[in-house]
Amino acid sequence: MRKSRFTTIVFGATALLTLTQCFTNKQNQGQKLYAQHCQSCHMEDGSGLRGLIPPIANADYLQTHRNELACLIRNGADGPMVVNGIEYNKAMPGVPTLREDEITNLLNYIQTNFGNKNKRYTFPEVEVMLEDCPVEHKRD
Amino acid sequence: MNQPTNYSLKQTIVAVAFILTAALTYSCQSNPATETLPILGEREAVERQVNGKTIVDTVYHQIPDFSFVDQDSQLVTQETVAGKVYVTDFFFTTCPSICPKMKSQMLRVYEAYKDNPNVVLLSHTIDPKHDTVAVLKEYAERLNVETDKWHFVTGDRDSIYDMAMQYFVGAQEDKGVEGGFSHSGHFMLIDQNRHIRGKYEGTEQADVDRLIEDMKVLLKEQQHEKK
Questions:
Q1: What pLDDT does residue A139 have?
Q2: What terms describe the molecular function in GO for this protein (chain A) (predicted)?
Q3: More confident residue, A19 or B163
Q4: Residues of B comprising the binding site for Cu cation?
Q5: What's the domain range around B82?
Q6: CA distance B203 to chain A (A)
Q7: Residue A1 confidence (pLDDT)
């Protein structure tokens, strides 16, 4: 009886620790992915580069093109794009190696930071979006 | 007995305070005036004979003559920067790694000195095959900068890479890296005699702050020489 209780406690503690670890990593994943794949062009503060690289910070595009962003991250973008009333026209390389869950975390990080207070994505939502990606993503 | 000791203590404090204030005031005023920037690069001692006496001159590393074309198809040579302080770097417009950061920092230098006629910015592309005059033109226009102040130059590939070496900036084609070119993100500060006076990390805000301050020193030096 005593032994089994001990085992339960040990197992419980381990499970709890693993879970917290898991959540901690997940919470930072979006930020880490941003630093790794986006920051060199969109800058640490999401300000972009005047006239050349659109901002992420307070960008209307994140709301107006919400459903296209997942494919944009995976496949990149080409052609003109209007963000906050300014036209940009510079190719963005995609990151085809990102998994669905990583793209979800990255999107949620972007949508809720840099002054953005937009709706978060659910994992199934992003999965569906990524199924319908145009082969070559073009913006209109 | 007590009274005189107290008085002299007070006196001492006043005297010390006075000296400290004077010293501080003096040092604050004299420092910026005497501040100078080093001349970077190898130096050579050259001897010459004047009236039978040997005089030793120090010859500093100097940027050689150059000839490139900017975003307005204008020739940019040593004449363009003659008598001016200039900041130079090497980049390419399709660079996915450090260039956007460099350009956003160079933009700060531009904004700080855009009204100063004695300052010029000179950005060389290391990918002249792609970065033609038209490409550089569009880049500069979107960045909304004046050609006279900030020249984006292209030209003969080998000449550009040779100039990078002259400025002590690493640049080479490298199929192994993202974008196909590897280069350092340095901003180099050049004085009116084409001597290199400073090297700064173009991706580090704090180091670019230092550049903006150093430029003030160099411009002041230039004023003194003119007088």
A1: 47
A2: electron transfer activity; heme binding; metal ion binding
A3: B163
A4: 95, 99, 183
A5: 67-226
A6: 10
A7: 57
